[in-house]
Amino acid sequence: MQTTNTAFGFIAAQLRALRMTPARFCAASLALPLILIPSLALAANVTDTTPPTVVSIDFNPKSVDVTANSQSVAFTMHVTDDLSGVQYITATLTSPTVGQIQNAFLSLNSGTATDGTFTGSAMIPKFAESGT
């Protein structure tokens, strides 16, 4: 019986701070350092203009075989933010041709919104496009 390992590339994730100011970062195959770009400024006496920082990121398993069944990929991210904190994280997985997209919604698992570990998972569907 021949099996095919399927690997989705990690394209982007979005961190949403409690102040409702999104910051985006992109990485090729989870290569760190990540570039954070704030996308919205606030007008107030004290503003939080520093985007969240990704301290670490991991996902397991590193490879999945979806020839027989869908498979789940678990994400763990340690994120800090100096003032308002992070509300949630969305990680987007795309197939090699970007024809298939799956999202992982990460929520606070331990710590605080300003220094916490976020976890979540994405389901890679059966017969998803293979690649690395």
Overall pLDDT: 74
Characterize the overall form.
elongated
Strand content: over 45%
Helix-strand category: mainly beta
Helix content: under 10%
Strand order within the widest beta sheet: 4-3-2-8-9-10-7-5
How does the major sheet shape up?
Answer: 8 strands, antiparallel
**Quantity of strands, as a count:** 10
Describe the protein's architecture and organization.
Helices cover 0% and strands 54% of the residues. With 132 residues, it is mostly beta strands. It has one domain (5-39, 52-124). Strand 9 (101-112) and strand 10 form a beta hairpin. The model is unreliable at 1-12 and 16-38 (pLDDT under 50).
Secondary structure elements and pairings:
Layout: E1 5-6, E2 9-17, E3 22-26, E4 35-38, E5 53-60, E6 64-65, E7 71-80, E8 86-94, E9 101-112, E10 115-124
Antiparallel strand pairs: 1-6, 2-3, 2-8, 3-4, 5-7, 7-10, 8-9, 9-10
